[in-house]
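Please, structure for the following, as tokens.
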Amino acid sequence: MRLRVSIPQVKADVAMGPQVCPYPGCGGTYFKLHEKGCRKAVRDTEYSEVEAQRWRCLHCGRTHRVYPQGVNGSQHSDRLKGLSILLYVLGLSYGGVEDVLVALAVPLGKTTVYRDVQAAGEQAQQLRREWLRQYGGQIRVMGSDLTQVRCKGKDVVVGVAVDAERGLVLDITLLEDEQTETLQRWLQPLLQMVGAEVLITDDANGFKEVADQAGVAHQLCRRHVTSNVLAFIAEAAEQVLTEAPAVPQGLMVSAEQLCADLETLEWILLGLPERGAQLLEQLHLRYAPAPCPRRGQQASIWYRMRNQLLHLWNHWQRLTCYHHARYHNGLQVQPTNNCSERAIGWAVKERYRTMRGYKRQQSIRNVTALTSWLLEQPVGYDMCSLCSA
């Protein structure tokens, strides 16, 4: 993982005057300098103490401290917070971050590092929500996928939604399960909010229902479908060539015809011809009389061929959606769901792979939100907004 960000700096000689009284219910905007030279001990890579100022609010009469840039009421500076957060996101454990800081002579306990990371993650979620409200309506193609992580010894489903044209994360959330109803409660409001016209997912039935209910075009990931069908073709061809199965009664197809149809199916799947739907229909009608297996019986190769053809025929428009969207609507729709898988790899799995699991579900939200936010920022991004909360 590469993060070219900038941690906050401490400027002991720069202290901005107050703008609004910090006490609840006051709202005063006029102040008078009450005291200078208030010393404050601080943990930082450069300073051991700084000078603060005390100002009096002319509205309520109470005083409050104003600290130099990069310092607040915390015992350690924003610079040290930013450094510890960055070290954790890059792969060190909380204890590992503590060891590095001890070696740098700026000791910080791992519990403090944990609190700083969690606070930064919550701030990252807030920044993501604000960004989404501002730019949400400009997102036309959305990708989505699911993954799992361990939390207290149990698998937790993590849903990821991305802007498929720019590869930016839109949402990372925890789901109860992978059922259709759960996916609808999560994705349908998100699709409406961002104004998406196309949804890219894998071949799970729940995503198909979501796309249909939301009234958006649906692109199935070609890589998932292709690998599954090619595996079936290889298995079926090996079975036929090793020992030709008996042809069920009422099915007018020979083993030789099945091999030829498997080749045709492979050509259709890889070439995606314009007449693909009609060709699949013709092939399906040939195998439609194949009988269903009885209870306890294994499905025959003829019945499995029938189901493969029916599935591809029914979802041909989903498999070739990117053709129509690209040439008729001017959308940059990719035939695969690599954008979502890439987001899962970097925002969820890259930091998780060095861990034994999470202890809190809220930690999953915070760490993934923080990681994804930092990954998307330009070179030199100032982490002040994450450290000063």
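The chain is about 45% helix and 15% strand. The first strand starts at residue 5 and ends at 6.
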